[in-house]
């Protein structure tokens, strides 16, 4: 039985999770959750027992000095709570449960059951899992983010992609399926990271995931230095690509393919929507802050269609799988 005596009662809680490893190309997903913890000063209230889920020869513990005292940090998954807004403030009150850790080495079903046990005890209404995959996408264009679910009703209600993936999966896919069996609505946000620059960090992909999370949950996220980091990252990759004519030519071919595929999306409605979003962020207001109702976006709202990730065979690669999974 999970005891959470130290955690206060939460308001409209949503669980947001990310795991380092196979489903985290460029560390984009785990960095996005780390950003939420940092900006909203998340308070850790629980950690899973490392002995139950991790092979320490694969994910080794770290020894460090604390005022001359040697301490050990064990690889694990931690849960924290962030409280957003206030009952009498301009931003409507809402709480997030953040889950950040490493993809477990063993006992995945028990791992997911333990995560869902916390979700049940805290009254979590929906689970959002962040992931990042390697794709044939140019670093010079906006990062494609695809929102998928295995829940047919949720896909229809929120205008999401319904997962049709078949193949090897990671803890992201297993957790989403576990949510479905437990009757907990679950959505996965997948960011596509250029496969030719897969090494972490990738602040541009992390930023894209946070923007998608804003849209899904209808909230404003403080971005801090992340936009500037994303610009610096792109400039750095531009410089590296310019030094290699073959890479530069390849990037150009990806740009042409991407622009051709997305030409119908460059509509006036999509541009106006993005500009409205920018103005809300500039004024410090969350999207839809003047509206009443659920934390979920109105399913009748008009949104530019999210691009699909590239087709290809799924399989483990350095920094992430090729396909969005579940």
Automatic annotation (TrEMBL):
Which Pfam families did the record assign?
PAC2 (PF09754)
The segment annotated Disordered runs over 275-326
* Record's compositionally biased regions (Basic and acidic residues): 275-284
Q: What is this protein called?
A: PAC2 family protein
Species this protein is from: Streptomyces mimosae
